[in-house]
Design goal:
- With 178 residues, the protein is an alpha/beta fold.
- The protein has one domain: Rossmann fold (3-Layer(aba) Sandwich).
- The chain is built from 7 helices and 6 strands.
- Helix 7 links the parallel strand 5 and strand 6.
Length: 178
């Protein structure tokens, strides 16, 4: 797991504006800064063969918001890093309760069977490991649920990148089981 910053202050306000105040243009600089930090990190060393897959929104949430903030972040991240983007990699097939305010165990329950690998992604066999991308990393429940879905389809997952984390040691909370 790799995060650009800690979820607080200006980063927290920017993510909130991106998600809840109809400010999709904020994804461009945030994704760029995430990409810049990723490329200079030890975690990214030697990882040129990754495909970026953003965490999807359920169709109802996508219609309500008008855009998927993780996909917009991923577009900017990929523009900067030159990694290929597969916005159609995962689908959120079950509407889930907002994760905010849920306990860690309730988050896991909430996301059980929430994702599936898209038909397009399954048909075009993935040759490189996936790098998941999301806006915030809290308990790792979303990342684990998405990674598990991909891995059950035989698609390797390298890890997750996020704009921000609430954790001081995110590596202890999300490990991809390759």
């Amino acid at each position: 797991m790799f995060a650009w910053g800690v979820y607080g202050g200006a980063i927290k306000r920017a993510i909130a504006a991106l998600k809840y105040d109809n400010q999709p243009q904020l994804a461009r600089p945030l994704g760029h800064w995430l990409g810049e930090a990723w490329l200079t990190s030890k975690v990214a060393a030697g990882t040129k063969n990754l495909t970026v897959v953003p965490i999807p929104l359920h169709a109802n949430k996508l219609q309500q918001r008008g855009y998927n903030q993780a996909e917009l972040l991923a577009q900017s991240f990929c523009d900067f890093t030159r990694l290929p983007l597969r916005g159609d990699g995962l689908e959120r097939v079950r509407a889930t309760e907002a994760q905010f305010g849920l306990t860690a165990s309730k988050r896991e329950e909430n996301l059980a069977e929430a994702f599936c690998v898209s038909k397009k992604f399954q048909l075009r066999r993935q040759a490189t490991p996936v790098l998941l991308l999301d806006d915030i990393f809290t308990t790792g429940a979303t990342a684990r649920a998405a990674a598990q879905t991909l891995q059950q389809a035989g698609i390797p997952v390298y890890g997750l990148v996020a704009i921000a984390t609430t954790r001081t040691n995110p590596d202890a909370t999300f490990k991809s089981k390759q």
